Amino acid sequence: MPEMHFHVRWPDGRREACYSPSLVIKEHFGVGETYALDEFVARSRTALTIASQRVEARYGFPCSLALGQLARIEAGARALAALPDARVRVEAFEE
Asked: N or C: which terminus of the chain has fewer CB atoms within 10 Å of its end residue's CB?
C-alpha cells in the first residue's frame, strides 16, 4: 500500500508530520487549506479510519500506526480546543 505523510501546522504554530498508510488523505484534505479544529479532527478520523480499514482488508488486521496517529491528532486538538477560532493548516503531502 502506498503510505504517505501529511504535514500540518497546528493553531499554536507547531508543525507535525502525520502518517497515513494510504493516499486516502488526499481525498479529505487540500494542501494550503485551513480547517477549523473540529473539522480537521473529523476529516482526520474519517480518512485514517478508511486507511486502517484498507490495511485490514488487505492484511487481516487494522493499521495500528494510523489509529495511533488519529489518537495523537485527537489529543492535540483537545489541548488546543480553548483557543478562539483554532484552525489547522495542511502544508504538504509527502509520498
From this structure: C
